[in-house]
# Entry
Amino acid sequence: MSNFSEKERKPVNVNSFMKFKKQNHKITMLTAYDYSTAKMLDEAGVDGILVGDSLAMVALGYEDTMKITTEEMLIFTKAVARGVKSSFVVADMPFMSYHVSVEEGIKNAGEFIRAGAKAVKIEGGSDYTAQLTKRLTESGIPVLAHLGFTPQFINSLGGHYIQGKSAENTKRILEEARKMECAGAFAVVLEMVPEESAKYITENISIPTIGIGAGRFCSGQILVTDDIIGKYSDFTPKFVKKYADVFTVIKSAASEYVNDVHTGSFPEENHVFKLDETEGKKLYDFTDKNN
Ligand code: KIV
# Structure
């Protein structure tokens, strides 16, 4: 249950994330790619809405997240921003939209802010990513870091593997998280790391951690909405809790509709527009000279 009722909910801003961590208020984030989903999540009291590049797979049917461009992501970001009143909207910067140069990264990030996002998310914890984060933050663009399993690096990682599986690798992720915190990131997404590792990282940085497949001890959680409502059926990761089965609901509604149209049960009397009776009669008045 959310702490806030729909009416009294104050807009979440970048400072709310640190405040929530200090207050031990578990931060909630979900993904949205369209206006009506964003509106539902906002009304449900979700703290942050990510226009994730997962939309490449979930909404557009690509095989990975690397296929989506900045231009495409901007369309979805605008739609989500139009549906939100209080949640904090973060846009995922897509593959290669921030890697060529810091200047290009800032320019593209600016487009997401113009589209209505309040922050951008970037993957990785290299010196370059930290430098970009510093420049973005100095330019007034808040940055959500993304460490652990980073889908845009899938070709370098060799597949969907859990990250930080040893003390040494956990400490490497912690170093990256610290680097991103020093550079100005307001929070860090930790994806697919053992929960002991995520706990250790959460305890050793000041900014909040938002876990996805990172266990119970992060400062908050993020999941893909289409996974938790059971709409995306291609694959459900182990860390997802399914709260609904929208795939079955939509599929059975659609097949009922098909059947109704075939059998003539739809449309019914109350679904149709009627001609005025006298006008209706004229249609069949064969003495009418005009016909
Ligand atoms: O693209 C995405 O949906 C993400 C996850 C962290 C939810 O990056």
